[in-house]
Amino acid sequence: MVSLNDLKTPKTNTWCPGCGNFGILMAFKKAFIETGIEREDAVMVSGIGCHGKIVNYVNINGFHGIHGRVLPTAQGIKLANPNLTVIGFAGDSDQYNEGWGHFAHALRTNVNMTLIVHNNMVLGLTTGQATPTSQQGFKSKSTPFGVIPPMLNPIAHALVSNGTFVARGFSGDMFHLKSLIVEAIKHRGFAFIDVFQPCVTFNYLNTYDWFNQRVYKLEDENHDVTDHKKAIEKALEWDDRIPIGIFYKKERPIYSDSLSHVKNEKLTKLPKQNIDITSAMKEMM
Amino acid sequence: MIVNKVSLLVGGEAGAGISRSGLLFAKSCLRGGLCVFGANDYQSLIRGGHNFYTVRACEEEIYSQADKTDLLIALNKETVFFHKDELISGAGIIYDQEEFSITQEELERNDINLYHVPLRKIAKELEGPQIMENTVALGAANALLDYDTTILNEVLQDTFNQKVAQQNIEAAKRGYDYVKENYGNSFGYKLEKTESAGKKRLFLTGNEAIGLGALNAGCKFYAAYPMTPATTILHFLAPLDREYKIVVMQTESEIAAMNMVAGASYAGVRSMTATSGGGFSLMVEALGMVGMTETSPVIVLAQRPGPSTGLPTYTAQGDLRFAIHASQGEFPRAIIAPGDVEECFYNTLDAFNLAEKFQIPAIIISDKYLSESNGTTEIFNQNKIGIDRGQLITDDTYTQEEEYMRHKLTENGISIRAIPGIKGAIVRTNADEHNELGYTTEDPVLTTKMNDKRFKKLEGLTKELENYETVKFYGPENSDITIVSWGSTKGPIREAMKILSNEGKNVNFLQILYLSPFPINKIKNYIKSAKKTVIVENNKTSQLSSLIQEHLLMTVDHKILKYDGRPFNPEELAQRIREVL
Question: Which member of A156, A163, A228, B23 lies 3.0 to 4.6 Å from A107 by CB, making a disulfide possible if both were Cys?
Answer without folding.
Answer: A163
